[in-house]
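Hello K.,

You asked for the raw outputs rather than the summary table, so here they are, unedited. I folded two proteins back to back in the same session to keep the settings identical. This is the first:
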Amino acid sequence: MDCLVSGCRYLDVLPAGVNKGSTLLALLEWLEVAPERVLTAGDSLNDLAMFETGLASVMVANAEPDLVAHLPRLPATYQAQAEGCQGIVEGLHHFGFSALLAGRLPKRVAGRDRPGRDGGLVCGREPP
């Protein structure tokens, strides 16, 4: 079992090895979504595992100090100047996801052949 305190008041008790990061990576694999099409964002210590995945990430300005302390070892994580949702918007611009904010629809993902997933839309930037 893994335990973690976030927000100086929340106690998360999770099965060993299960966290936002491992779960997100498993979901991306299951959905066949390329990691470069994903942006994560967070503000509390329970988001650290998500930032540790190496996915493009935004730490908003009002992130708790215990999370900010990890920033130097998170090269794929951008520290926004704005708080909350505005910080996430700032991060979307930083990582090249501005088209989502301009109201353009995401492109369809090719090669989907599993039932229930054909023709699904995936939000994100075009792969390099």
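The second followed immediately with the same parameters:
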Amino acid sequence: MPFVRGTRMHGFGMHGLGMRGVAITALAVASLGVAGCSHIMHPLGGDKAGPKQMNNPDSAVQIGVNGYLWRATLDTLAFMPLASADPYGGVIITDWYAFPEKPNERFKITVYILDARLRADGLNLVVYRQTKDAAGAWIDAPATSQTETDLENAILDKARRLRLSNLKG
């Protein structure tokens, strides 16, 4: 065992450098290796100067999906607790939420933004619903398709208004 309670054992092949010296040497060697690379790809595409610019104003350079749909979805579902949001994959998942006037019923929503363009078919929404039984356990129950349609329409309407407000000024 080379170390015992913070003491260094000599003759371990370090020739007096110690662990700090080894760490500094390793860092220096790693820095030289990275500096020797001739070309490093930018994670969003393009080259060292930055990401490729997109000609479509509906496309977001910073995230992988349409920025208006993303913002509109977050705004529309702001009353629900957020469980997960992946702007590169275009997935927003809420946590379970029960309306105060109906504590025996709760909802969870998953939104998939499928396109970088602002289009109605670029949005897919799934509503999960549970009701509480007599024993107090949550039981899966079907959500109406009208609920999903109403939420999709609210998100699309908000996204259109955001885009128009951005174009006007």
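Residues 3-35 form one domain.

Happy to rerun anything if the numbers look odd on your end.

Regards,
P.
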